[in-house]
Design brief:
Blueprint (H helix, E strand, L loop, with lengths): L6 E9 L2 E8 L7 E10 L2 H9 L1 E2 L2 E2 L9 E9 L11 E4 L2 E2 L5 H4 L10 E2 L12 E5 L3 E3 L6 H5 L1 H14 L6 E5 L3 H12 L4 E5 L3 H10 L3 E3 L6 H8 L5 E6 L6 H8 E9 L12 H7 L2 E4 L7 H9 L9 E6 L3 H9 L7 E5 L6
Parallel strand pairs: 12-13, 12-15, 13-14, 15-16, 16-17, 18-19
Antiparallel strand pairs: 1-2, 3-6, 3-10, 3-19, 4-5, 6-7, 7-11, 8-9
Helix pairs in contact: 4-5, 4-10, 7-8
């Protein structure tokens, strides 16, 4: 049987809450590309946005699409010209394929490339499939001891690293992280290993508050039961934090982030609001002279993410609280969408082994 006749299973999103398992042709690698057998794929909040709303801003699901971008895989077949990867090698995969030629790419900001092809973003198919073809340069070999789930979690860790990079956080700084989902938790963990002296978080879900205290936070406030701003200001003796990270994507959290930041501090916005709007009190950010930065995915972070995990400086495995096979992907999405059963990160195990 030729490669063109081989098939694979893939989960495709047809519309709001309409995920189906389809049989599709297996892709074939071209020059500079590699055929991958997908191992583990994390269910990201952006995947759930497409699942619940059919869109993120102007990016709309108009035709069936394979979601998924947080993934690890085994190398199956290197394409022509690829000599640095071998069959059976476990890799973490950078999901963004930038053009390499635009002004942003040339200036070292491939995450801002206007022509980026990003896995799982309409109309580009993603990783909830048995096989995927990617450029070889997007595949990062993993050291011994890494599991496929570890590899999949390197993508959200990369976003956290980029978020903390934007903050220019220094040893001894204090930080607030509003939202204790996977991205917020990883931002807190990266801030901790970067030298943050104190980390304050907010989170309405009790299981996540408890997880955050065990994982990285000094204190976690419940926005449904207490005034988060007042709590963080008390904890900092009225000074506020040096940097606040918004990682909830909620309507109130950008303003809260600004309110708890000291004059001259920084607000880093990583969350994706469901209604595609964000508000900040103009007088607060102006009078404090705050620097406000928004997170657009990541850039050049995979080697650092791998090193942090490999050296035991930061653990990602505890975040993978639930695993599902590909045929149960709908259950995974509903669990994450409903914040059920104490889920932090659900992972789809597309294949358990290379063979």
């Amino acid at each position: 049987m030729s490669n063109s006749e081989l098939t694979m299973r893939a989960a495709r999103l047809y519309g709001i809450r309409d995920l189906r398992l389809d049989t599709l042709p297996q892709p074939v690698p071209g020059p500079g590309e590699v055929l991958l057998k997908v191992a583990s794929v994390g269910v990201c909040g952006s995947d759930v946005h497409y699942y619940l709303e059919g869109r993120i801003g102007p990016q709309v699901v108009e035709a069936p699409i394979i979601p998924g971008h947080e993934f690890s895989a085994w190398v199956v077949q290197p394409g022509p010209g690829v000599d640095n990867l071998r069959p059976g090698q476990l890799v973490a995969v950078e999901p963004a394929v930038s053009c390499g030629e635009c002004e942003s790419c040339r200036e070292g900001h491939p995450n801002l490339c206007p022509d980026v092809r990003f896995c799982g973003t309409p109309p580009i198919d993603g990783a909830y499939a048995e096989y995927k073809v990617m450029p070889a340069e997007n595949c990062f070999p993993l050291p011994d001891g890494f599991s496929p789930d570890d590899g999949a979690l390197l993508e959200p860790l990369g976003i956290a690293i980029h978020s903390v990079d934007l903050a220019h956080l220094r040893p001894g700084h204090t930080a607030a992280v509003l939202g204790a989902g996977p991205i917020g938790l990883l931002i807190a963990a990266v801030a901790r290993v970067s030298g943050a002296a104190a980390i304050y978080m907010s989170e309405p879900i009790a299981d996540r508050r408890q997880f955050a205290l065990r994982y990285a936070a000094d204190a976690v406030f419940n926005p449904e039961a207490e005034d988060v701003v007042a709590g963080i200001m008390r904890a900092t003796n009225g000074r506020g934090v040096d940097v606040a990270f918004e990682a909830a994507g909620a309507s109130l959290t950008p303003d809260q982030a600004a309110a708890v930041t000291r004059p001259g501090g920084k607000v880093i916005v990583a969350g994706i609001p469901a209604d595609d709007t964000m508000t900040l009190n103009a007088s607060t950010v102006r009078r404090k002279g705050l620097t406000i930065k928004l997170v657009r995915r990541m850039k050049h972070t995979y080697p650092r993410a791998i090193a942090l995990v490999h050296k035991g400086m930061l653990k990602v495995r505890p975040l993978a609280t639930h695993t599902f096979p590909l045929e149960r992907i709908g259950e995974a999405f509903e669990m994450v969408a409903g914040y059920r059963d104490g889920v932090i990160k659900a992972v789809i195990r597309v294949a358990e082994a290379f063979a």
